[in-house]
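Example with several molecule types.
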Amino acid sequence: MSEAVTEAAAEAALASRAPGTDPASVPGASGARQFWRRLRAQRAALVAAVVVALLLLVALAAPLLTAIEGQDPTTYHPSLIDSARGGVPVGPLGGIDGDHWLGVEPQTGRDLFARLVHGARVSLGVALAATVIQVALGVTLGIAAALGTRWVDQLLSRITDIFVALPLMIMSLALLAIVPANFPRPVLVTLVIGLLSWGNIAKVVRAQTLTLKGLDYVSAARLSGWGTRRIARRELLPGLAAPVITYAALLVPQNITVEAALSFLGVGVKPPTPSWGQMLTAADVWYQAAPQYLLLPAGALFVTVLALTVLGDGVRTALDPRAASRLRVGTGRRREHRADTAAEKETSS
Amino acid sequence: MSGFGGLPGFVLRRGIGTVLTLFAISVIVYVVFYVTPGDVAQITCGPRCSPAQVHQVAEQLRLDEPLHVRYWHFIEGLVVGQDYSTGTSVEHCRAPCLGLSYQSDQQVTGLILAKLPVSLSLVFGAMVLWLILGIGTGVLSAWRRGRLTERLLTALTLAGTATPVFVIGLILMIVVCGELQLLPFPQYVNLTDDPEQWAWNLLLPWLSLALIEAASFARLTRSSMLETLAEDHIRTFRAYGVGERSIIGRHALRGAFAPVIALNANNFGSAVGGAVLTETLFGLPGIGQELVHAVNVVDLPVVVGMVLVIGFFVVLANAVADVLYAVADRRVVLS
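Resulting structure tokens for the full complex:
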């Protein structure tokens, strides 16, 4: 779950230790264009980006899609369930027909397609919102630690260490136990994930800020009498963009997995709100009668996390090609190189 | 830090840091859970408690006293034990006392100790598997870099990182136990009762947990080996005519060793999370399953105890790994 992220943190820390930051990791106006070019040069990342875009579209258009189907995710259809056989869907293929494109849920008869696309909304919504919280907290506390007095740095760094050490799943599980049941669960899951796991990003930001602080252009800003806050916003934030974006891209799939896991355990998003993890809770009982009840949410989770991970790797490569090329022997480098030289010609002519 | 340099000083500083972290975690956990909205005594006692029982729980939790006093009593119980009056008799809770579960009428420490062997069997058995699988895959793909083998392994590890542990567990269980009927559905057997049955029944849980964790080890082993392979001293070895097998197996692997140890400990927390899912999925009666149960019925003393015990193991694992890392790579001590 968090291993890819820890690995990236180690790499980011390594990269930021090198004096004289790589110009490629401080994107200015031309940096953004360079980034897109390098991202496009990676075929896998491009495919992943398209998949992610489609998933986002499905999530956004979920109410529209289910309206076209003529169903909704919460209505029970007792007539489509064979209660004599323990609640398996009536009809072949788990109840697939023109009205229910992917069949119905065992025992309740709720429409599976509607639950799946609304589940995408929950999964992606929770994961993205939690990432926003993690990034906001991590960046703020990381910068504050790097720019603050020795005492502030010590305090914030110790707090960060504690949050890094906390086992996320266990703490989330426990916290979800004590919040009153009437609190909206998706919001609650978002808050718990977001507030618990910002530690690694704060560490990366602190390390990078310390490096940037020693660079000439930041000293120049300080000498010309700029205040700390203005320096942080105008001079440091742009330099932090690359590691933060890289890191955030890896947090999204992690958050999706955590939400799914919590909902699978029955403490995350609760019915009637659909969630992929929650759909899998009872799936093993029904796999023979309605295999799609297991395969669809499992497949949706797999594809989403895979696409987001590949896209995250692609973003990392595009933002820090040197670090990435050390690790990638002979894959995609030639295409990137070609793209780079083509762009150089473009700019020089 | 004069006089405390070098490895012993590093171990000492790391040890103090670990104790402080554990202390901070215990304060946070205690405060968060016992300052919940709502009537703590009622929640702790459970929904079926009579007002008299709730009153008794409130007394035992010393709810009329300020928070820091209550926390102190809690720590005191952990260190020297505590007596609980149940109205008619006095029950002694031996150190380390994590309090009483009023809902199951048991001492939390005993409850955890009874479930611990299952979880330890699961996590440590899986750890052996994921280290072998992960490092093996990483070494193989670094050795076969640029070839079809590497591409296949890279795709496999990527798929591994993208699959949640409960999905792979579900599929393994359905295919192996349900469709192929190669194994019966897992039912935990004590190691001391029947070691062979113990291993057979844990095979699928081990595999589910290990396959997911192995993926990240494979990625890390491969990348740190490739990094070492690009270094000058490897080129020198090659120039001296050292064989590829020896370079991969001895020199490059040594470079990958330290990061892998560090990852293993950092991953311990996520592996414990994975163990909770695995236990729930396969119905293994470990502390993970107990925690999920306690969360569902809001049994506060059990939840607090479990979080502290698991947090203790995770923080300890991190500290041990830091020290091992320092032993493997002495440069760490200097920074």
